[in-house]
Amino acid sequence: MRFEQLRIRGLRCLSDVSVALDPTINVFMGANGAGKTSVLEAVFLLSHARSFRSGAREALLQRGTPQLSVFAELRHADERSCRLGLGRDGVRWEAKVDGEGVTIGQLVHECAVVCFEPGSHALIAGAAEERRRYLDWGVFHVEQDFLSSWRRYQRALKQRNSLLRSTAALADGLFAPWEAELAQCAHHIDRQRRTYLDMLRPKLIASIAGLLPELGQLDLRYRRGWSEDLDLAQQLREQRGRDLARGHTTLGAHRADWSIGFEQAPLREHLSRGQEKLTALACMLAQAELYAQRRGEWPVVCLDDLASELDQSHQAAVVAQLSAANTQVLLTGTEIPQALQALPSRVFHVEQGELTRLL
User: Fold this and answer.
1) From CA 305, how far away is CA 71, in angstroms rounded?
2) What are phi and psi of 259, to 5 degrees?
């Protein structure tokens, strides 16, 4: 898939930007703070309904502007085209596909964007929430009923947590229905996550081998968030006293995690910051390749500040892989990376939120 046109209004320093994108490589150059990362952030919003940057959603809005919007014309590999829109007025988000109002889930299902950026090492070294997001985004795009199960799970979790914080609700009969619903959805989500990781593993092994061969054999580990030996509903009943004391549910699919170990670096603490970044990059590339295998087209790939994150040899390896895959790439930097200088690309200069095409 590829974005053909992109229009951004009221996103950080981008007041009103329209850009026609090349189907292959697009480079956005400019000084720090010029707004080039916000262009990548805009297309990421259409695919994830959130930013890859940390911080509150309010920070997305341009200062003094109550609204933001991102519109795009997207073309799929089968030449089917669609128009996507995501806007925010106050606290309310509105999504559209071909002019019709849709749910956020329907919008996100229509396009796929993966991103490697300076904070990507958090996928390896950060909290479990980031790894669950990565995993669930992949499952969402290959399992049609994942979203409905996830929503049911979140509703049951919210209800159980509410009961845990209510001193009047100590009767087993109040907890039992929500714990049964939690367990049923959690087991379904767990099966789908395991299946996805099984499909991802060979892609990840190959991607890691090309970027970090010195670390040896890869070990992909997964923890589902409750004991492997017992049904979740039973464990929730047994742990209810502890959960009442803490005021929240301590077991379940929302506590799942996965990790990567290597023959020469069994624990993530053994990795340098550079190795964490390369491992995260390998995860992104593996997920993109699996998406392409399952959906018949590559996602759009965003690379923020590639030259400062990777040395030249790794830049060249990544660019070569993406060029061979014929995927659309959006890349930022203070200058054109050496790995791209021999390749045809569309180059834009970004300054104070304004875009000018150079090549």
Assistant:
1) 24
2) -150, 165
DSSP assignments along 206-222, one per residue: HHHHHH-GGG-SEEEEE
Chain mean pLDDT for the chain: 92
In the chain, what percentage of residues exceed pLDDT 90? 74
Q: Strand 346-351 to strand 329-333: parallel, antiparallel, or no bridges (unpaired)?
A: unpaired
- Backbone φ and ψ for 139, nearest 5 degrees, come out as -65, -40
Strand 2-11 with 67-75, pairing: antiparallel
Is the CA virtual torsion 306, 113, 317, 343 positive or negative?
Answer: negative
Nearby residues of 73 by Cβ (< 8 Å), 6 or more positions away:
3, 4, 5, 6, 81, 82, 83, 84
When pLDDT is averaged across residues 275-286 and rounded to a whole number, the result is: 94
What is the C-alpha separation between 274 and 17, in angstroms, rounded?
34
The rounded distance, in Å, linking the Cα atoms of 70 and 45 is 8
The amino acid at 277: K
Longest dimension (CA), the chain: 70
Provide the sign of the torsion angle of the four alpha carbons 186, 192, 195, 197, taken in this order. negative
Task: Report how far residue 318's alpha carbon sits from residue 281's, in angstroms, rounded to the nearest whole number.
Answer: 9
Is residue 161 a contact partner of residue 174, using CB atoms and an 8 Å limit?
no
> In whole angstroms, what is the distance from residue 197 CA to residue 287 CA?
10
Structure confidence by residue, pLDDT tens digits, 219-254? 999 999 999 988 999 999 999 999 999 999 999 999
In order, the DSSP letters of 258-302 are EEEEETTB-SGGGS-HHHHHHHHHHHHHHHHHHHHHHHSSPPEEE
Tokens 């009969």 correspond to 173
Q: At 118, phi and psi to the nearest 5?
A: -55, -25
